[in-house]
Amino acid sequence: MGLTLRDRSARGRLRSLEGECWIDRETSGCEFRDARLGDRFRKLLTQIGSAMGQSIPLVCQDWANTKAAYRFFSNDRVSEADILAGHFQSISDRAAATKGLVLVLHDTTEFSYRRENSEAIGITKSINSGWDKAGRLRSHTVCGILMHSSLAVTIEGVPLGLAAVKFWTRKKFKGTAALKGKINPTRVPIEKKESVRWLENLKQSTQLLDHPGRCIHIGDRESDIYELFCAAQEIGTHFLIRTYVDRLAGGGDHTIADEMDEVAIKGLHRIEVRDSNGDPDQAILEIRYRKSRVLPPIGKQKRYPALTLTVIHAEECGTPKNRKKIDWKLITDLPVGSRTDAIEKLEWYGLRWKIEVFHKILKSGCKAEESKLRTAQRLTNLISLFCILSWRVFWMTMLNRSAPDAPPTLALTATEIGVLDRLVNDKPKARRKTLSHYLIKIARLGGYLARASDPPPGNTVMWRGLSRLTDIALGAMVGGEFVGN
C-alpha cells in the first residue's frame, strides 16, 4: 500500500530539513540546462539516499515519481558531469579546508549486468563458460560498464570525495595477450589506449584540488605507465605507484632490478595483517630503497625524457602459511632518505585499499549492479548519483574514527540529532555528545552492538542505520501530525 498524501507531504518536509545539511553542499555547484532537472536531481538524491540499495519504484513510491526518475536518467541533457559537478565543487572546498597532504587513490572497477542484448550497454570482457559436448571451450561476453575513479583522502584516511571519474564501454573486447601477438604495446601512443584514463584523471583531479604540490597520486600495478610519470612532473604533482615493469635504468645497459639487487637492507618494519581466514597476523618486512635514473621504453625514448625516481622494495621475511607473501615494489618521485621516509610511503600506499572499499559500497550498499536500466547512459547517470551516496557513507564511517570529538552538526542535521536523542538511549558513562556519539547511535540502528570490545562500526552498519534513521524520523513526524489532530 502506497503512502497517503499526508504521508508524502510529511516526507517532503523531512527531506527538506535533511537537505539543509549535506544535500545542499553536494548539489549547490550543479548547473543543469533546465532548473527543473536540478530540482528532480535533488529529490532523487534524497529519495535514493533514504533507502540505499532499494529499487527506483520502491524509493519513489508511486508511478508519477518513478516515471519522472526514469525520465531524468534517460534525459539527453543530463550527464555524469552534470550530476557530479556539485560534488566536485564540494571536494575542492573540503580539500582547501584540510591541512597537509592529499592522497588521490586511482583504480578501475567494472559493473556487470545480465542483458540479452549487450549493444545498448556494451561489454567489459570475455570469459570462459565451460566445454561443449564436442569438447570445445566456450566463451561469452560480459555486459557492463567500466569506471575509473579517483578518490581523494587525507593521510588519516578520511575520504574527501571523488576528484575525477571516467566511464566507458567497449563494443568488442580483445585480450592483452592477443594484442601482444600482433603489435608491440609500448610503441602504441598512450592517446590510443584505454590506459590514457590514468593520465586524464591525474590531470583532472590535480586541477580540481588546485594545489599540485599537495597531491600524491597512488595507484596499483596497472598504473605503472611511464607517460603518467612524465605527466605528473609536467604539472608539478607527485606519484607513488606499485611498479610492475622492470624498466631500463642508468645508461640503459641494465634494469631497475639489477640495481636493487645491489642494495643492502636498510631496516625492518613490522606490520599487522590478516590471513586468508581473516585472522590477525604479523609480517616483518625487509626494506630497501634507491634513487635511480629511469629510462622510458625504447620505442618512446625520443618522445619522453629520463627521470630520476626512487624505488622502494618491501619484502616479507620467510613464507607465511595462510596468505600470500608481501612483496611490494614502489616507484615514486618523492624524496626517500631514510628508513622512516620509506615506511611513511609504504603506509600511504597501504591506504590504497580505501578506493576498493568505496567501490564495494557502490556495489553492495547501493546495489549498482542490480539496476534494470537499459542503456549505458542511464546506468552511468545512476551510478554517478550512487557515487555521492557512497562517499557520504564512507565519509561518516571514517569521521567516527579520525574526528570523533568534532561537533555533530559537521555531518548531521538538527532533525537527525533530535531523532537520535529520542530514539537511541545513551550508553552508561557516555561521553559528551560529540559527532562520534551520534554516529555510533546510527550504527546501532544498523545492527552495531557497541560493546566495549567491538571495533569501530563499519560501512555496512552505517548505511543500514542511515536508511532506518530516515524511515523512523518520517514515522515520528507523521505520528505527531495524527496526534496533533
From TrEMBL:
<protein>
    <submittedName>
        <fullName>Transposase</fullName>
    </submittedName>
</protein>
<dbReference type="InterPro" id="IPR047768">
    <property type="entry name" value="Tn5p-like"/>
</dbReference>
<dbReference type="InterPro" id="IPR014737">
    <property type="entry name" value="Transposase_Tn5-like_C"/>
</dbReference>
<dbReference type="InterPro" id="IPR012337">
    <property type="entry name" value="RNaseH-like_sf"/>
</dbReference>
<dbReference type="InterPro" id="IPR014735">
    <property type="entry name" value="Transposase_Tn5-like_N"/>
</dbReference>
<dbReference type="InterPro" id="IPR054836">
    <property type="entry name" value="Tn5_transposase"/>
</dbReference>
<feature type="domain" description="Transposase Tn5-like N-terminal">
    <location>
        <begin position="21"/>
        <end position="78"/>
    </location>
</feature>
<dbReference type="InterPro" id="IPR038215">
    <property type="entry name" value="TN5-like_N_sf"/>
</dbReference>
<dbReference type="Pfam" id="PF14706">
    <property type="entry name" value="Tnp_DNA_bind"/>
</dbReference>
